[in-house]
Amino acid sequence: MGKDTAALAALSGKLLMAVAEKRPLVQSITNFVSMDIAANALLAIGASPAMVHAPEETPEFARLIDALVINIGTLSKQAADSMEIAAQAAQINRKPWLIDPVGAGGLTFRNETMLRLLKYNPAIIRGNASEIIGVTRILGLTDKASAPRGVDSTSSANEVEDCAMALARHLKCTAVATGDIDIISDGDRIARIANGTPMMTRVTALGCSLSSVTGAFLAVADNAFEAAVAALAIYGVSGEMALEQAAGPASFRTAFLDTLYSIRASDITTRLRTI
Amino acid sequence: MGKDTAALAALSGKLLMAVAEKRPLVQSITNFVSMDIAANALLAIGASPAMVHAPEETPEFARLIDALVINIGTLSKQAADSMEIAAQAAQINRKPWLIDPVGAGGLTFRNETMLRLLKYNPAIIRGNASEIIGVTRILGLTDKASAPRGVDSTSSANEVEDCAMALARHLKCTAVATGDIDIISDGDRIARIANGTPMMTRVTALGCSLSSVTGAFLAVADNAFEAAVAALAIYGVSGEMALEQAAGPASFRTAFLDTLYSIRASDITTRLRTI
Amino acid sequence: MGKDTAALAALSGKLLMAVAEKRPLVQSITNFVSMDIAANALLAIGASPAMVHAPEETPEFARLIDALVINIGTLSKQAADSMEIAAQAAQINRKPWLIDPVGAGGLTFRNETMLRLLKYNPAIIRGNASEIIGVTRILGLTDKASAPRGVDSTSSANEVEDCAMALARHLKCTAVATGDIDIISDGDRIARIANGTPMMTRVTALGCSLSSVTGAFLAVADNAFEAAVAALAIYGVSGEMALEQAAGPASFRTAFLDTLYSIRASDITTRLRTI
């Protein structure tokens, strides 16, 4: 393990313990598919999930939360309105928030919704490669044609690096593109994490749950870049540890959540791979 | 095991068998996070779940059901309206119903919704300690300051006993406050169940599923107090049995639902602890 | 194994491999209870799930999908409108679609919604026995009184065969009624599959997930009858294989999804039973 990798592993372990100690309250306005796994992933790492979403209460709730996560997976007109109110409330109350642009790039309504939401200064945008390319294109920052088919990514991690960097600079945020190699950029620094397993793509909403967990790290980290690195490192290493106990995607899901609960800083130190 | 404990265990075992035999139809208007686990918990004990919620059909459906459970977890304006129509329909059709006041006390909109719903005479109100204190405060029955942080409870079981008793008397219902010690009061009697494990708080919506299962017992018990005691006893004992097979919260969830399916009256007799 | 059974098993194995190879994009507008298991079942067999449902984007999305599945489980006015727009878009774009008539027959609003949706020529209608009888009755094709209690079926498989046949002829589609014996009819042919286990009725939304998986087979099969046979064969055999590893309904659910992921054509050949 090189010096940089060791530093990122140490940082991830430190933030893992910080989440367990602070137990941040993470509001997740997420899609209907991911509610269960996102809440369980947050509980597994010791955070406190809340799926409050109504415009009648998000402005009041924004004062109580430690971070907000918005995921546009099962979007609707009503949900888009709620999301905008919540994002604005997070900004007003100076609470860090993350957006997960599920399916962005492929459908007009979600592209327009993304433009509405990005005005409120998310700290992190996290998607798969196709989605990160898609958002970059919506903002006119690239001509690269991404053709997301549903919500699964078809682009390679290498293609998306330029887009993540451009997006981070333009939005003054941290951009995360997950894939075989996970890419994290704040427009200046870039980190590449090589852990994980293809089995993670066979469990629905595992990426959505990663977004919620990244929200928990936002609440304890010094900055969004470090929060994203820690979340990605812990997910990638947990995925590899869970695979050793799995017979298929459902037993993998169980082992993965159990591992999020029991993983230790030393596991990350031993297993993290960056390139 | 003392005489009272033995009597409560025998009652719980009897009602467990009654649910498996009658297979009550339990309508659950519950939050999006808990849909899966609530339905699976009902099926595990042999009840029949139905998540019908639309105002277009709840009045008609109220004639077919054996009990109704309302959970305000992921509240919205539209959901609140649906819940009021369903609660009213249950009252008109003399079907027992239970309310789970998720997050009550902490947010204005859900406090107002609670006041709307409590008019329709729920048979049981079940929440964690903070929520039960919260509802008692909304009704002006206590000055105790509960500060729920999200949906997880921070109050001790001892603090909440007075509130549960006051709430039960005021609403003429049975109040249940779950925690390290579960408290059940109908305003006259009080029961305290000491089973369970902290791992139960690491599985999202396990408390919500307890509310749905309590609805199934409402459909077969002589009264709400006995229904609540049976549900709490079975949940607490199943939690302890499941913990013996769990490596973390996800394998615990699996073992817990399996145990709900296979638990026998003799398990309750052997393991129930009251104080 | 007779000649017909061998032919159906071979067909099912061939389509199983075709799904894994083509990875069809299956839009599922399904109930809130089934979102998680439906998406995970699709991923397990190698298909790509998308739970897009908003009327703002379904017409555009219909051009990208390979099949559509609509499930009316947790119906609402808003959902019914979305479903009609999606069904119409599928018809216009000549994408095959399936309807799962959860609870049909028992409640006026869902009966009316069924009539609205059936106008758009579904390729398959799949329900349990009570639901298939219920839909047949709504359409005035039978006097048989089905009294569904919630969403669980109380009719025997034998009773429903005439209804499935009548429904298939009237709607010019394939009708599937699941039960102890699963019945598939296109109005001309009839197939009866005798695999499966009662444990499948103890896992919520397993039938809904079967509907979504059948949608994936619609995208690769020559016709709807063959798609339905393959889905039923694979579900029934997987259920029996999973039961061998299960201690209760939750470990069964895990084993079932793992089996969907790992099942091979030879498993179907060995185990399929038709009558």
Folded structure, characterized:
Three copies of one chain form a homotrimer. Chain A is an alpha/beta fold. Chain A has one domain (3-271): UDP-N-acetylmuramoyl-L-alanine:D-glutamate ligase (3-Layer(aba) Sandwich). Chain A contains eleven helices and eight strands. An eight-stranded mixed β-sheet of chain A has the order 2-1-3-4-5-6-7-8, sandwiched between helices. In chain A, helix 1 crosses helix 9 (224-243), helix 2 (35-44) packs across helix 8 (206-218) and helix 8 (206-218) crosses helix 9. Chain A is globular and about 45 Å long. The first copy, chain A, starts with a helix and ends with a helix. Chains in contact: A-B, A-C, B-C. At the A-C interface, helix 5 and helix 10 of A face helix 2, strand 2 and helix 10 of C.
Key phrases:
homotrimer, 275 residues, UDP-N-acetylmuramoyl-L-alanine:D-glutamate ligase, eight-stranded mixed beta sheet, 11 helices, 13% strand, globular
Which helices and strands occur, and which strands form pairs?
The structure is a homotrimer of 275-residue chains.
Chain A: H1 3-22, E1 25-29, H2 35-44, E2 48-50, H3 58-61, E3 67-71, H4 77-92, E4 97-100, H5 108-118, E5 124-128, H6 129-138, H7 157-171, E6 174-178, E7 182-185, E8 190-193, H8 206-218, H9 224-243, H10 249-262, H11 265-271
Parallel strand pairs in A: 1-2, 1-3, 3-4, 4-5, 5-6
Antiparallel strand pairs in A: 6-7, 7-8
Helix pairs in contact in A: 1-9, 1-11, 2-8, 2-10, 6-7, 8-9, 9-10
